[in-house]
Model the fold of this input.
Amino acid sequence: MFGNTISMMEKSMDYLWKKQEVTANNIANVDTPGYRRKRVNFEETFRRKLEAAALIGKNEDVRQAIQSSKSYVVEDAHTTRADGNGVNADVEYTELTRTALQYQYLTQSLSGDIVRYRSAIKGQ
Done:
């Protein structure tokens, strides 16, 4: 009934939530010697799976691509400071703000979709 929109938004929101957690953890460890920055991988893999499924053209394949996509945490190998810490607080705060705005946008978009579905169901 709703197509793949809600599933895609759910996966995207899960990713953004995880990204906020990881970024906040990076910020919390900005002064920890030897701490290596972590990041969440999802967007590129998600895009590739969706593109491959779209080429096939079946809705079931797109649905499977969405459901099988997972985010995962990766530790950066390089460090930027003499103490071995790889966190740049400015970069992390920027990323945290960007992620919060993306999450807010998806929340508003999902709310708008639900309002439209309600209107359609009520026949208004």
Q: What stands out?
A: Helices lie at 5-28, 43-56, 59-68, 89-122. The beta strands are 38-41, 72-75. The mean pLDDT is 88.
